[in-house]
Design goal:
Distance between the termini: 34 Å
Low-confidence stretches: 318-326
Largest sheet: 10 strands, parallel
Bound molecules: S-adenosylmethionine, 6-(5-methyl-2-OXO-imidazolidin-4-yl)-hexanoic acid, iron/sulfur cluster
Helix content: 40-55%
Oligomer: single chain
Radius of gyration: 19 Å
Length: 339
């Protein structure tokens, strides 16, 4: 792999004193984004449960007894209604997830139809469906797909501790297939899965050295789901400041990308979420459910951003008013934030 950044350099960033790390992350953030805006993405599980994979954190694996109700692929009307509601609440991106190993030939055109329907509402589209071929990625691109989410999840070394049925290299191949089809890549990971600091270093090092950095980098904190090996295996919660550090280092290494404060927010207080946003997260999942687990309600997030003088990023053409007045004094002293 020809490296854009060495593993040692990533380790050094993680080891910086927090004020130094945050200062650098904020500078990188400002250079490429308006630091007062947060992109809102809403998730919908379009096919739930009975997944043949063995991801140790996941409520949807058929191997774990999590009591989750299985649902076949949702129909067009249900998906359109959910996407429309998300748009009205201020979300600009709609992400549909399916608990599949790979997408069957029968389901490929059905998913393409769902993508086209969401795109027609004027939202950005994202899907996460497991392993896909370049041809399938092209079919989805033609239907209007903007992003494909497929995470590396953790370092190559720790990976086999949490997933054995899909290899790291298979994931990298799916990411190449997505890129070749001209679809943007959403790829990140999960913390709190029994990994060490060095595994978090390894994850971000892999992400930053992909042939092109991912356009979108979700950082999830484990949502412990009873019945899964990771929730039942006594893995202790990761130090919350490690989540902040992971976000800050991701922001510095991938300054142009969206860095998403993803799963795990219901267990974070607002001060910690605010710290993640200050550390460079500029996207979050909104709506009271992620795929199968809880997430703060839209109103809670709207109130949180307002208290911070921040606001959801608006689509180019939007009928949703989320404006919070600009701060002329801050602009006079600091200069207007980068556009
Ligand atoms: N089945 C698809 C796949 O694995 O590519 C897509 C959905 S999967 C739910 C997407 C990501 O969500 C996982 O890679 C993991 O990082 C995250 N995730 C899943 N369950 C989680 C949990 N209980 N807590 C935190 N993150 C989770
Ligand atoms: C990602 O990295 N996080 C999202 C999205 N990609 C698909 C999923 C989080 C799932 C959290 C557990 C659940 O709700 O089932
Ligand atoms: Fe299946 Fe995705 Fe859950 Fe893994 S994370 S068990 S692939 S739904």
């Amino acid at each position: 792999m020809s490296e854009r950044v060495t593993r040692e350099a990533v380790r050094d960033l993680f080891e910086l004193p927090m004020p130094e790390l945050l200062f650098r992350a904020m500078a990188a953030h400002r250079e490429h984004h308006d630091p007062t805006q947060v992109q809102w993405s809403t998730l919908l599980s379009i096919k739930t449960g009975a997944c043949p994979e063995d991801c140790g954190y996941c409520s949807q694996s058929a191997r774990w007894n999590t009591g989750l109700k299985r649902e076949p692929l949702l129909d067009l009307d249900t998906v359109r209604e959910a996407a429309h509601a998300a748009k009205k609440a201020g979300s600009t991106r709609f992400c549909m997830g399916a608990a599949w190993r790979r997408v069957s030939a029968r389901d490929t055109p059905r998913v393409a139809e769902l993508i086209a329907e969401v795109k027609a509402l004027g939202m950005e589209t994202c899907v996460t469906l497991g392993t896909i071929t370049e041809d399938q990625a092209k079919t989805f691109a033609d239907a209007g797909l903007d992003y494909y989410n497929h995470n590396l999840d953790t370092s190559r070394e720790h990976y086999a501790e949490i997933i054995t049925t899909r290899s790291y290299d298979e994931r990298l191949q799916t990411l190449r297939n997505v890129r070749s089809a001209g679809v943007k890549v959403c790829c990140g990971g999960i913390v709190g899965v029994g990994e060490t600091r060095e595994d978090r270093v390894g994850l971000l090092w892999e992400l930053a050295n992909l042939p092109e950095p991912p356009d979108s980098v979700p950082i999830n904190e484990l949502v412990p789901v009873a019945g899964t090996p990771l929730a039942d295996g006594g893995v202790s919660r990761v130090d919350p400041f490690e989540v902040v550090r992971t976000i800050a280092v991701a922001r510095i290494l991938m300054p142009k990308s969206y860095v998403r404060l993803s799963a795990g927010r219901t267990d974070m207080d607002e001060a910690l979420q605010a710290m993640c946003l200050m550390a460079g997260a500029n996207s979050m999942f909104t709506g009271d459910t992620l795929l199968t687990t809880d997430n703060p309600a839209f109103e809670q997030d709207r109130a949180l951003l307002a208290r911070l003088g921040m606001r959801p990023e608006q689509a180019e053409e939007s009928d949703v008013d989320v404006t919070v007045g600009p701060c002329a004094t801050a602009d006079r002293i600091l200069g207007a934030p980068a556009k």
